[in-house]
Hints:
- The complex is a heterodimer.
- Chain A is mainly α.
- Helix content of chain A is 78%, strand content 0%.
- Chain A has 12 helices and no strands.
- The radius of gyration of chain A is 22 Å and the shape is globular.
- Chain B has helices at residues 2-13, 25-53, 64-67, 72-103, 110-124, 129-139, 144-153, 167-191, 195-203, 208-236, 240-246, 253-262, 269-300.
- The interface between A and B is large, with 91 and 96 residues.
Amino acid sequence: MKRKSFWSWIWLIIGMLYFILPLYATFDFSLRARKGVLSFLSYQNIFKDPNFWSTIRFSLVIAVFTIIVSILLVVPTAYWIRLRLPQLRGMLEFISMLPFVVPAIVLVFGLIRVFSGAPFFLTNTYFGTDALLVAAYVVLALPYVFRSVDTGLAAIDVISLTEAAQSLGASWSTIMFKIIFPNLKVAILSSAFLTLATVIGEYTIASFMVGIKAFGPYMSLIGQNRTYESSSLAIISFMVTWSFMGLIQLFNRGKADSGSLAGAR
Amino acid sequence: MLNKQNSKQIEKRDAPKTRPAPFRWRDWLVVLPFLIFAFLFILLPSIILLLGAFRDNTGKLTLMNFAGLLDPSIVSAYWVTIKISLATAIGGGLLGFLMAYAITVGKLPRPIRTALLTFSGVASNFAGVPLAFAFIATLGRTGLVTLLLKNILGINLYDQGFSLYSFWGLSLTYMFFQFPLMILVITPALDGLKKEWSEAAENLGATQSLYWRKVALPILMPSILGAMILLFGNSFGAYATAYSLTGGFINLITIVIGSQIKGDIYYNPGLGYALAVGMVLVMAVMMAFYYSLRRRSERWLRK
């Protein structure tokens, strides 16, 4: 029994080193912008850069729209399929796993080819491009939004709840917004924060669609010309991911559920 | 034969879980937005890529684009991508499994388990541009670990042929999000190992290692393989990390597709389509394996 826990500690320590060393190295590096002394100069430079704020705001807005669209798209569909169209369940599951099969780089390739030309011409306007970006992110988020909502729906008795509400005279919108959505609060919140964490620094799709307007491509640009600032950006971005994931953990209370798997980088 | 029929009849007699609703147009109207969305933004792009892969520049049907896949530089791009994905799936899979073992069967204190799972959630989502920066600060030419090794142990990594911007460097970088993913995927499976199994084996006189070889590992194997396939797919499709680490100077299939989209150098749209179709095919085969393995593992690890 003793030997077992000895090896457990060894593996844990090796793994933790793998986690911590790169973060420590990055943090250490980010403090060396001023020669000879440790300082937060590189952070000050980043926070002074108006492009930092404008790109992070842009990516935040895109993320919020992504969350709204994917929740509005997935929740009523998953609910309705449980209630009325159980024969479509397999299809819904299949569709929501497709983004795993189509890597982000292939997705953006296909989307640009389809929507930049006739009859859509989405990429001719800023609004169209941004909308296309949101659509792409909804696709990326689909697997885990669906899984999270579906698990949430499985935990409540959809049919009884609906019938009870109907017998009390509730309309469909009342059922949706007063019963289903509140019951799925945990599922919706955790998939929302996971979406936020992945979308905010996303690079692959953003770089091809909107370029330097988004936070991911902005980070990449900083990496090309500013050594120390890139490290402080990495630390900032880690903190952002950390806080979102921490919030999810708070909702889920330490369960090892696969709801926090994103994929596609 | 008879038995089978019997059980079938019994199944039929069971009350259906939901009332078989009559077909109604309104029911379909509710799911229509989702179906339209899926058609426009998942199906249509895939179809266009697939059709494009079979057409030449003038729009005539051709197989030449797929012949282009046999070009040595493309073959090597596929090969390097597969090698990196394999290396990080196996390496990340092993390390992740051992760490998941430590927090489940290894009985490390509960708070460590919670902390590790939270950490894994963060690290498995910490990829792309910032991850590249972090590894440049760690293993780059003036990275912390590189300097430590040089100053303390006298080992100069870059003289030994190591480079962060090549195969091994990229693999080490990918590992940062690979093994946390393994921890997240495999921990529930390890939780599913029942205490009774190990006790029963012990009562029958089996040692721990015999129990692992004959009972635990065979039960876990589909889950382990399935998780590793997930890891494989995760790095197979990765673009952002590789691109920002190497500036596009590594011959990965995702990087080649990226340069086809930008249309910079050897621009050949047909080839780009064929490359994309090839990637989707590899991923589809992987996912098919994953699902059949998962169905097998679910048999044992039901809660």
